[in-house]
Amino acid sequence: MSNIKYITPLLLNSILVAIFCAANLSCSIKTPEPKPVQSPPAPTTPVQQPAPQPPQPEAQPTIPPKVAKVSYLAHSCFLITSSDGLKIITDPYNVIGYKPVNESADVVIISHEDWDHNNVAGVNGQPEVVRTPGIKSIKGIEFKTIEAWHDPGKTKPNNVISFTVDGIKFCFLGDLGSSLTNEQVSAIGGVDVLFIPVGGVYTINAQKATDTYNALKPGIVIPMHYRMPGLVFSLDGIDDFIQGKSNVRKLNSSLLEINKTELPAPTTIIVMDPAR
After folding, report:
1. What whole-number distance in Å separates Cα of residue 256 and Cα of residue 276?
2. Other CB atoms closer than 10 Å to residue 234's CB: what's the count?
3. For 19, phi and psi rounded to 5 degrees?
4. Which ranges of the chain does DSSP label H, i.e. alpha helix?
5. Among 246, 254, 248, residue whose Cα is nearest residue 272
6. What is the DSSP string of 20-46?
7. CA 247 to chain centre
8. What is the CATH number of domain 68-271?
9. pTM value?
10. For labelling, which of 26, 74, 184, 265 has a CA lying 20 to 30 Å from the CA of 197?
11. H/E element holding 146?
12. Strand partners for 128
């Protein structure tokens, strides 16, 4: 009994301690609060990037067309001046009733050796001369000379000379005295500006001149070597050539400016006034 006496308080004490510890444990252990469930982020619409554009070409400056100038001095003598200032003179005359040529040139072309066509000494400067058949290049320009004839009997030679200035092909027939053959027409080729004698007597006449330019089909026909006031020998007048034609333009000037983009079609005859 004595043992029970002591055990009972101990047992009771132990029970109390256990109850106390259980109560403290329940207070110290807290149930963790649940974390809020986060919704997945809403899908975003991708930003559309503009498609790359090719670089724009830079604006190119407008290049004015090249203009060649043709000055009619007199008889069969013309001064052709390129846009770069290169000067070509055709068949400079001697004393035939007109004022002297008195012009400077880089090149002189001679169709034949008659005194009213070969006065190189009358040209100022130190021009190079084209006067024989073949091809000759001077200052970047190719001169193509084809032998033709100064008379119907084909006994006296005459040069037909072609050259290109500022993209414009000129053909100078000189003192052509007989019709061109098909081979000569083919050798000359396309022509933009044709200088053609029309005064007869020493060259082809109005009808043969018409047949000749119809065969060559140039854009511009410039008649030459016809009767004008002051000439010391006799030739047919210009009226015989232009009479009845509708494609005639009287320039009333000794200066004609030409650029390749404005060549007329069909063929136009331009009658120029001589400067001398």
Report:
1. 15
2. 10
3. -65, -40
4. 2-28, 182-188, 206-216, 239-242
5. 254
6. HHHHHHHHH--PPPPPPPPPPPPPPPP
7. 27
8. 3.60.15.10
9. 0.78
10. 265
11. strand 141-149
12. 107
* Sign of the torsion angle spanned by Cα atoms 127, 132, 133, 135: negative
**Domain ranges in the chain?**
68-271
Dihedrals phi, psi of 222, to nearest 5 degrees: -115, 110
pLDDT tens for the chain, 276 residues: list them. 445 454 455 555 555 555 555 555 444 445 555 565 566 666 666 666 677 777 777 777 777 789 999 999 999 999 999 999 999 999 999 999 999 999 999 999 999 999 999 999 999 999 999 999 999 999 999 999 999 999 988 899 999 999 999 999 999 999 999 999 999 999 999 999 999 999 999 999 999 999 999 999 999 999 999 999 999 999 999 999 999 999 999 999 999 999 999 999 899 999 999 999
Residue 261 per-residue DSSP state: G
- Residue 248 has which token pair? 């005639």
Determine the Cα–Cα distance for residues 161 and 110; give it in Å rounded to an integer: 9
Identify the residue whose tokens are 């053909």.
171
Strand bridging mode 134-138 / 193-197: unpaired
Tokens representing 56 are: 């724009």
**Among 92, 94, 89, residue whose Cα is nearest residue 69:** 89
Question: Is residue 262 classed as helix, strand or coil in its secondary structure?
Answer: helix
Instruction: State which amino acid sits at residue 110.
Output: I
Cβ–Cβ < 8 Å for 175, 148: no
Q: Which two tokens stand for residue 171?
A: 């053909």
Distance CA 107, CA 80 (A): 10
The residues, any chain, with a CB within 8 Å of residue 203's CB and separated by 6 or more, are 150, 175, 176, 177, 197, 225
Q: Are residues 254 and 272 in contact, defined by beta-carbon separation less than 8 angstroms?
A: yes
List Cα–Cα distances, 168 to 18, 31, 68, in angstroms.
Answer: 126, 105, 8
* Interatomic CA distance for residues 165 and 251, integer angstroms: 21
